[in-house]
Here is the input.
Amino acid sequence: MNKITLLFSLLAISFGFSQNAPIDFETGGHGASWTWSVFENGANPAVEIIANPVPVGINTSATVMKFTALDAGMNWAGCESMHGSDIGTWTPSAANSYVTMKVYQVGFASQVALKYATSSGWAIGEVFAPVSTADTWVEVSFDMSEWIGGAGGDPDQIILFPDHSDRTADHIIYIDDISFSTVPEATCTDGIKNGDETGVDCGGSSCAACPVIEPTDAPPTPTTAAMDVISIYSDAYTTTSGVDYNPNWGQSTAVTVDYSVASNNTLKYENLNYQGTDWTANSLDLSEYNYLHIDFWSHDSSDLGIYLISGVYPTNVEKEFVFTVTADQWNSVDIPLSYFSNLGVDISDANQFKVEGNGTVFLDNLYFSKANLSVNDLSTSSFKLFPNPSQQNWNIESQKGQIQSITVYNVVGKQVLAFTPNASKAIVNGSVLTPGLYFVIIKTESGIGNIKLIKN
Here is the structure.
């Protein structure tokens, strides 16, 4: 009797710590009948289990999950299983720490993310995977080995972020075949960071050490007068009070504050996924300021953006400006604060940054300014713009000297056009643009201004 009791006890422990996987959303499989809750995007509809609408390519299975991310709400729209009984409680190990998932994003492409949580709500920050192609099934992978031996306990919930981007319209995403396996061994030749590689095809037990590629030249020296600046990080200015450069947001980015580059202090982010800078104890009213300046340098980042955040969670507002990264040189960017305020950020209550992306990134000279690069800010009256709205082209005429450069951004901060007219008149060719709202930064001999374009 004692042996039978012991056997049943061991079986109970075994079943209590088993994982219901793979998650294939098929009838009789895992995922289809689970209790999925949606979050962080307004009155988002519930997830749907539907017949595969595009059974081609890498995914010809019968049934998938459909997730709708509404335009309204935060940019990390997602869904989560019910604690406990859905996926079950399991112990993360080398055998289940590599997660793959098939994703189909309809009409757009953005990064996706994966996260676990324990029954108490404890979690490690989400792990990101890029999606670069719209309207096709792609398989993304996540290395969740950070959970192995974690102090927070065993997870019993899986959290999906099928659309981790700012939106100007509702987004539909199909998800399928979430599988758990062993992290592939490093091959040093496949162009993927896998196994225990510390970089792409380098580092770890099987590959040569990764080359150390860092900036050797100093960041640009700011020239804006100190009286026109509120500094968040810069050797050139006095930093505003109460700034925390590494708040505990659950992220796994390695942060070095005051990392020396050519005798200049910088912020160094290694293995970036997302990283915060917090000054909520000294929230800033930026109503009289015009620009956010930032200098950054990276050798390997292919995805980089910065959020300006206002308000307090869960009603805070955060919107991203996506950078165009030119590798192996310092990139200097001045973002009109009107870009963020037009998207709903309250610049009278700015209290945080979030930098999101990948790779290793060096940052310096993060500050708000009333002037841009020591030149005057130009009002919209400094330019003639016609027609607006337009279906094709816009004419821009400067009243303040020659137009040196024109840069056009879409509403999610991605640069879509850039050219250097070096004339007092210019034509913006909108033939490659989709209908919608665009922000334009115009640099002239006399200053910098920004205007809005509408394509209908």
